[in-house]
Amino acid sequence: MPAASIEFQNVRKLYGEVAAVNGVSFTIAARSLVTLLGPSGCGKTTILRMIAGLELPTSGTIRIGEADVTRIPAAERDVSMVFQSYALFPHMSVLDNVSYGLTVSGQTRAQAHEKARSALATVGLTGLDQRLPSELSGGQQQRVAVARALVLEPAVLLFDEPLSNLDARLRRQMREEIRDLQQRLGLTVVYVTHDQSEALAVSDRIIVMDKAVIAQEGAPRELYAQPKDSFVAGFMGEANRVRGTLRRNGATDGTIALGPLSIALPHRGIADGEIDVAIRPEAIDLVAAEASPLAGTVRKAAYLGNTMEYTVDTAIGPLFVIHGRVDRPLAVGASVGVALAPHGVIAIPPG
Ligand SMILES: Nc1ncnc2c1ncn2[C@@H]1O[C@H](COP(=O)(O)OP(=O)(O)O)[C@@H](O)[C@H]1O
Ligand SMILES: [Mg+2]
Predict the structure, then answer these.
(1) Is residue 40 lining ligand 1, measured as CB closer than 6 Å?
(2) pLDDT digits (tens, 9 = 90+) for 131-144
(3) pLDDT in tens, 111-131
(4) Are strands 273-279 and 345-348 parallel, antiparallel or unpaired?
(5) What is the CATH code of the structural domain delimited by 6-230?
(6) What is the model's pTM?
(7) Where in the chain are the domains?
(8) Phi and psi dihedrals of 17, rounded to 5?
């Protein structure tokens, strides 16, 4: 399959006065899976539709592989899209749904059916050829939609929130299958989601969008551990926002005072003084009251089966805590000491 890279150069898309995409540049390597992540309305679908050629940019340049496709219509682009709603033809069998694109482009029915059967096998759907979409589960319909896109052997495969109609367990299974398929077939995939755990789980790289522009782009681990502002810190997972005082003591080393606690952290080039600090809930340990200088009082406690979630009032503000010790839960009102693991404490550059 001729997987291709994708490049956006300063792409804008205006709808009347509204900029749906406002000067976006990125490069997506061939055979990689890149996620566009961001809240509803930030421009994700518009970017996908411009890659597909379903919308033309107001300005800027789009390349697929070596070719400038900025003004090339959708039918000539070699891009397939899997829609959030699946968009299956309700009156057509599974086999006809998947072979439709091939027969439209002039292949014989026999050829089209053979390729469609092979695509259905690739997504783990054999033996359901003659069913109608209404006779399938949500997960099976999702697989048909993927097979229908795959059968065209596109240079680029696009997914727009493909799992949002599935329940949590199936979402996890399908996202693993999509990632597995992408790696097995060496596909270039652009994947849209507003779910950060989905993005972290499947992506080679993530492009975080906010209000029509890119907030930050990077590898999953980089975005989670080194968010460049509080929007990305908050969007890439839960984060407690507190104020701290930074003191630089070397080319990269710094010390952050958080109330009575002092933590050694990279200063990330931020100037000395008061700064915003993000604390991941899993970086907080609740210890005996006398074991830490930062005292806390448990205000809320929830049992989630594999973890406990607490809200703890402290001198640096209320902290949301995810704790692994479910066997000895803390009661509301308990006095605790609050300790921090440095790996989940992040100095946020001033915005
Ligand atoms: N066809 C359209 N006409 C007018 N405005 C649109 C159209 N499509 C999208 N928009 C606007 O552009 C912005 C981005 O939309 P969209 O790309 O669908 O966001 P997302 O997929 O991230 O939720 C939103 O403000 C939306 O209302
Ligand atoms: Mg959308």
Answers:
(1) yes
(2) 999 999 988 998 99
(3) 999 999 999 998 888 899 999
(4) antiparallel
(5) 3.40.50.300
(6) 0.91
(7) 6-230, 238-348
(8) -85, -20
